[in-house]
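queue> pop job 88
queue> type: inverse folding (structure -> sequence)
queue> payload:
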């Protein structure tokens, strides 16, 4: 940096004798600067999760020295705190660099379709996965949206399409990267899984030389996810279950809590992420991530899609990336702790409640009846709460997770708990990270996980 600066100063001094500084002068500098291109440098975000935001480094050798560090306010962790420092140097003219992603350069203020090829297949038949990019003209965070990590979860695909095509890059601060169909094989087959029957969302961040699924995960993570400051992974319920639109977030992480509050009134469910899930791997790398769940698999639900898009629009507004066309001003998210209520016996499940219904302790949620012996039993709500997810009517076995009942928590309660967990983590850091599983099994039915 310093030699460049010196060179610039010398050049400026010399030129100043004869003529005003021209744009060419700077372009020459920049051009030489850019000659050994480093992807990191060109990308306006920190490649190194521990490093400072790199957004301002690359393009603006011509700005004054003091302006360089951190003048974008694009610190992913800062959330709503950005923009409050009125004494900052006024925004520099155009500190945004073209975006280097997936081997292509996306100019500032443009929209582009890139292609990601998870190269676990052989090259001649591999099908590149389209990646939509809106690269804004003003500095801001990199927000990534991934959908159909499970190939049969369609609502998220439509959400990404609607949101991406309403973005206007010249009005945008920061960058939005949308991968509408991560698992293209599964999508083609109407299947949740990869072609080797593995669940991709158990393999993140993946390994370069791992199993097929692990390689796909690795490729997505390295080529796309690592370039994000924020990630929203879009899912639906699975295996004949439907979910009230909701965010799943690790509410023991204060950054994630702050991020989850940006989605307007969308319900937020505390869900400690398990190993291998995309959002868990992202958070581990300092990328603030949540999962959005809306509706069920193998169908397109307009209401769920619309709700999700509205929440994402609100997110963009709250991240100061763009003025929203509609904005949930007032509603605050409602936080929940939740538990799955399971069938005590096998048989035919018929529900007596609806999704999103408020239920009372002792209320019958549904009945399970053995169709041969005609013996049945009721599934009872063990506490007051709201039905955030439920199975559709079907044949079930004993132990089948039928109703996800959420218990409301105040935002203050959630934040206090997150801080506490953070402090605990900090004091334990360096210790054994493989904590024993808490008493009881993880509250997660087969196939319901994100
Ligand atoms: Zn899913």
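queue> result:
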């Amino acid at each position: 940096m310093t030699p460049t600066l010196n060179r610039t100063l010398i050049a400026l001094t010399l030129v100043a004798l004869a003529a005003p500084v021209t744009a060419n002068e700077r372009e020459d500098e920049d051009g030489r600067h850019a000659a050994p291109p480093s992807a990191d440098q060109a990308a306006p975000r920190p490649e190194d999760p521990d490093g400072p935001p790199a957004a301002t480094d690359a393009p603006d050798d011509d700005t004054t020295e003091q302006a360089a560090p951190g003048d974008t306010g694009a610190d992913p962790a800062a959330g709503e705190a950005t923009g409050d420092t009125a004494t900052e140097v006024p925004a520099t003219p155009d500190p945004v660099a073209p975006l280097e992603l997936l081997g292509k350069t996306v100019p500032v203020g443009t929209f582009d379709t890139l292609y990601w090829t998870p190269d676990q297949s052989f090259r001649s038949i591999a099908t590149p996965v389209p990646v939509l990019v809106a690269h804004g003209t003003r500095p801001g965070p990199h927000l990534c949206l991934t959908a159909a990590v499970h190939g049969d979860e369609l609502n998220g695909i439509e959400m990404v399409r609607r949101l991406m095509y309403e973005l206007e890059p010249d009005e945008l601060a920061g960058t939005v990267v949308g991968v509408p169909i991560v698992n293209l094989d599964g999508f083609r087959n109407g299947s949740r899984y990869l072609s080797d029957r593995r669940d991709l969302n158990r393999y993140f961040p993946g390994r370069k030389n791992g199993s097929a699924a692990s390689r796909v995960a690795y490729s997505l993570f390295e080529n796309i996810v690592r370039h994000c400051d924020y990630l929203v992974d879009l899912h639906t319920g699975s295996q004949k279950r439907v979910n009230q639109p909701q965010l799943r977030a690790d509410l023991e992480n204060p950054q994630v809590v702050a991020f989850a509050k940006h989605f307007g009134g969308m319900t937020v469910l505390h869900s400690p992420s398990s190993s291998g899930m995309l959002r868990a791997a992202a958070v581990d790398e300092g990328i603030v991530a949540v999962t959005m769940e809306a509706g069920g698999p193998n169908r397109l639900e307009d209401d769920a899609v619309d709700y999700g898009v509205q929440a994402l629009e609100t997110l963009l507004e709250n991240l100061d990336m763009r003025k929203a066309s509609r904005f949930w001003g007032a509603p605050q998210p409602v936080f929940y702790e939740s538990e799955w209520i399971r069938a005590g016996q096998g048989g035919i499940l018929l529900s007596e409640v609806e999704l999103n219904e408020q239920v009372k302790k002792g209320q019958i949620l549904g009945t399970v009846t053995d169709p041969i012996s005609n013996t049945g039993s009721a599934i009872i709500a063990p506490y007051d709460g709201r039905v955030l997810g439920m199975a559709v009517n079907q044949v079930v076995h004993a132990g089948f997770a039928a109703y996800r009942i959420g218990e409301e928590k105040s935002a203050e309660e959630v934040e206090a708990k997150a801080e506490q967990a953070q402090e605990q983590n900090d004091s334990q850091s360096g210790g054994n990270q493989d904590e024993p599983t808490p008493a009881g099994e993880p509250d997660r039915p087969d196939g319901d996980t994100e």
